[in-house]
Amino acid sequence: MTSSPPADATARPAAAPGALAALTARALGTCARTPSLLLTPLFTSAFFLVIYEAQLSALARTATPGGRYVDLVLPLCLLTTAFTGGATAGQLLVRDITSGYHARLWLTPVPRWALLAAPVLAGIAVLTAQAAALTGLGVLLGATPAAGPAALAALVGATVLLGTGFLLLAAAAGLHTGNTAAVGSVTLVFFPLSFFTATFVPRDLLDGWMGTAADLNPLTPPLETLRGLLALDWPDQTPWPGAAVTAVILVLGAVAARLALARRTRTGV
């Protein structure tokens, strides 16, 4: 006579989707109650978008496609939103770790991967809303994609895809250290790099050491891909360099998050 498996062994797979949905909903609720997670990255990027457009458009109009400087600077602000908003997952994990809620969840049958996936999914939802709102502001300021309205959806999607890699990196930092400063370091690494791309002018106007720095900067291909979605028609798009960098960031983030989860599983909470 064969013995039946323990009750929790059969219940755990069936409960996984429900547990993930509940944890994600809780994480989204935390974001809604925490303006620093939901609004700060959006307001910061929106502020710079308005200031850059207002102060630099008259000087740079001749260097931008169609004379619309916002087409050049909106992708830069979306790039910034991707890695500043990407800290959301790490901050959510740190809040739960420091409050002891994460330790209590660790004692339940909730799948370990769901404890990591829930804040990442919540971060993706928040980042999607932030990117859509910022793109809408860009349209109000005059952004007009050469490929038509569908390019705006592609712009938001590309920003979220890139931001997901940063969400995973921030989640790994938060899970590994339980420290807010460590999560913030993910943003601190990439924010200065964004100023060593073709920040305020098209890439072909940079020369000297700044041009070399932009060529070597890993953020340049994603930025140029985002700009291409506004400036170029579909047949002229060259998204592959930006897609390759995005894929690398996603893989690095996934590996780092997996290692951080495995370490916490071994050492306990």
Automatic annotation (TrEMBL):
Subcellular location: Cell membrane; Membrane
Domain ABC transmembrane type-2 positions: 32-264
Domain of life where this protein originates: Bacteria
UniProt KW Transmembrane keyword: yes
Keyword list, A-Z: Antibiotic resistance, Cell membrane, Membrane, Transmembrane, Transmembrane helix, Transport
GO molecular function annotations of the record: ABC-type transporter activity
GO cellular component: ATP-binding cassette (ABC) transporter complex
Transmembrane segment boundaries: 36-52, 72-94, 115-141, 147-169, 181-201, 240-261
UniProt membrane topology term: Multi-pass membrane protein
PROSITE patterns xref list: ABC_TM2
GO biological process terms held by the UniProt record: response to antibiotic
InterPro entries: ABC2_TM (IPR013525), ABC2_TM_bact-type (IPR047817), ABC_2_transport (IPR000412), Nod_factor_ABC_transporter (IPR051784)
UniProt family annotation: Belongs to the ABC-2 integral membrane protein family.
Record's protein name: Transport permease protein
Organism: Streptomyces odorifer
